[in-house]
Amino acid sequence: MKTGFDIIVQPIITERSDKDKKKGKYFFLVRKEATKIDIKKAVEKIFKVNVTKVNIINNKGKTRKRGFRFTYKEPDSKKAIVTLKEGQTIEFFEGV
């Protein structure tokens, strides 16, 4: 059985996530095989908050070129935007 820490890889801290934090939205990098239900349960268990909505963004890895001949592909990734119940915050993101 997977724990919440197996599903959520890391939080994403950018200017956009800082703006949306005021609206109750938080961004996380998650495993590719994670579903919305898995993400919701993981966030609720780790941070002890109520999640109302989960949106997922799948990013395909870009093809990069190194030198003259060699190309490589960056790995695919998955992001989750988690919306919390009004009035709740995640203390991890405060003061960042």
Describe this structure in words.
The protein has 96 residues and is α+β, with helices and mostly antiparallel strands. The protein contains three helices and six strands; from the N terminus they run αβαβαββββ. The protein has a single domain, classed as RRM (RNA recognition motif) domain (Alpha-Beta Plaits). The protein has helices at residues 4-7, 15-21, 36-47, and strands at residues 8-11, 25-30, 51-59, 63-66, 70-73, 77-84. The strands form two sheets. A four-stranded antiparallel sheet has the order 1-2-6-3, with helices on both faces. A two-stranded antiparallel ribbon has the order 4-5. Strand 4 and strand 5 form a beta hairpin. The longest helix is centred in the middle third of the chain and has 12 residues, at 36-47. It starts with a helix and ends in a 12-residue tail after the last strand.
Question: Strand order, biggest sheet?
Answer: 1-2-6-3
Give the CA-CA distance, first to last residue: 32 Å
Low-confidence stretches: none
- Can you give the helix content as a percent range? 10-25%
> Which fold does the CATH topology refer to?
Alpha-Beta Plaits
Characterize the largest beta sheet: strand count, sense, and whether it forms a barrel.
Answer: 4 strands, antiparallel
- Give the structural class: alpha+beta
Q: Tell me the β content.
A: 35-45%
Overall tally of domains: 1
Write down the overall geometry. elongated
| Overall CATH class | Alpha Beta
Order of helices and strands: HEHEHEEEE
Strand tally = 6
Based on the structure given, which CATH architecture is correct?
A: 2-Layer Sandwich
Radius of gyration: 16 Å
Number of helices: 3
What's the mean pLDDT score? 91
CATH superfamily: RRM (RNA recognition motif) domain
